[in-house]
Design goal:
Elements lengths: L2 H8 L30 H8 L2 H11 L2 H6 L7 E7 L6 H20 L7 E8 L5 H6 L8 E6 L12 E7 L32 H25 E12 L11 H18 L5 H5 L10 H11 L2 E9 L11 H19 L2 H17 L1 H6 L6 E8 L8
Parallel strand pairs: 1-2, 1-4, 2-3, 4-5
Antiparallel strand pairs: 5-7, 6-7
Helix pairs in contact: 8-12, 11-12
């Protein structure tokens, strides 16, 4: 698209979206070309990489009899929740896999007992496309299902209600970008960048501190909701301890996004302020840092944890148009709230070209140690109020 045409289509107020107080983490709903429903297979493949290790830890950790008796009222229903479920289809596969694993445990531990019933709660933000989620539910399923809108950084359920919590590729999304990033008086002012990749240490620390607050809130909320002995199963982007984020494929991509937006500033398509006030609310927590945060919180015991390669299946060069469609499906809500639609369209078009230029470098960056898996068990002591 020509620069002149793009400017003319933007309207008369190119700075109408310059503030980013807490842009929504909203995937593209529906089942269209760029929808998350049709562009989330990479996340599914990545989560499946550590399935064997996670299943082994669950079977070693979960005591079904104790689990069911830990609720305030004895029950024969095991309740699971998927935090950050989006609008499918990955959440359905994840819940079915977890239920099958728990069924195996039940048959092993309680061979003469009736199989528990299963109730699944699908959670995401209030603006999630729950219509697509529920219209695409598998017709044949072994569980009852309900939706629970709301931020998983806050309470979602009554006390001692849930037995198993699942959260996959969602914890790295912050509740908001760190406020210091848009404060000109702060050493963490992130001028000209949209992420902490390639940024000064002060910016990295601002992101780390925001993640620490968010993760602590998540753990505190779940500690009240999960019965004693219940578990949290986590899969999340990570990074080896001490490795700069600039050496990760996503770090390269975020830098390209920032460069593209800065070029648009030079071309007069958007203002400098629009870039300076936009920061991606994404933080990939290193394993040692993650472990320290769980231990500091004190409500959960780590039963299994490790780092993996999220894409051992990747052979040859990355299909960049397909890759960027997946990125767009997940990021659209943030960009479209802050920038005009035409700018978003042009940014994604240029991103395909830019990433293809560094395709070999991007491919080489998919390595061991950039995805974390963990199984946390709710400790059996009485929760200390915090």
């Amino acid at each position: 698209m020509a620069t002149e045409e793009l400017i003319s289509r933007m309207g008369d107020d190119p700075e109408s979206k310059t503030l980013q107080d807490s842009s929504p983490i909203q995937v593209i709903g529906g089942q269209g070309t760029y929808s998350y429903f049709k562009n989330s297979t990479y996340q599914k493949l990545a989560a499946n990489v550590s399935k064997e290790k996670v299943d082994k830890a669950i079977k070693r950790t979960l005591d079904v009899k104790s689990l069911l008796s830990s609720s305030p009222y004895p029950t024969n229903t095991i309740r699971l929740v998927d935090c950050g479920c989006a609008d499918g289809p990955n959440t359905f596969d994840a819940m079915q896999d977890l239920i099958e694993t728990i069924m195996e445990i039940c048959k092993s531990q309680c061979p003469d007992s009736k199989m528990p019933e299963f109730q699944v709660f699908l959670n995401d933000q209030t603006y999630n496309d729950f219509n697509t989620l529920f219209t695409s539910l598998p017709q044949e399923r072994e569980y009852f299902v309900a939706g629970v809108p709301g931020s998983f950084h806050k309470r979602l359920f009554p006390e001692s209600f849930v037995h198993v919590v699942h959260v996959s590729h969602a914890l790295h999304w912050l509740s908001q970008p760190p406020e210091e990033l848009v404060d000109r008086a702060s050493g963490a002012w992130n001028k000209g960048r949209i992420h902490y990749a390639f940024a000064p240490e002060e910016v990295v620390n601002a992101y780390a501190n925001q993640f620490a607050r968010d993760f602590d809130n998540f753990l505190n909320a779940r500690a009240k909701e999960i019965v004693r002995g219940g578990i949290i199963v986590i899969s999340n982007p990570s990074i080896p301890d001490g490795m700069p984020y600039s050496l990760i494929a996503n770090g390269l991509m975020y830098e390209c996004m920032g460069d593209i937006l800065n070029h648009m500033v030079e071309e007069g398509l958007i203002s400098e302020a629009q870039v300076d006030t936009f920061n991606l609310p994404i933080y990939s927590c290193p394993l040692r840092e993650f472990t320290a945060l769980v231990e500091r919180n004190g409500n959960f015991r780590i039963e299994a944890i490790g780092l993996t390669n999220p894409s051992p299946w990747l052979e040859g060069r990355i299909n960049m148009p397909e890759f960027v469609k997946h990125i767009r499906a997940a990021f659209e809500g943030m960009f479209s709230k802050h920038f005009p639609l035409e700018i978003c369209e042009e940014m994604y078009r240029r991103l395909v070209e830019r990433l293809d230029e560094i395709n070999d470098e991007m491919t080489a960056c998919y390595r061991d140690g950039i995805q974390l898996y963990a199984v946390l068990q709710r400790k059996r002591f009485k929760l200390v109020q915090r």
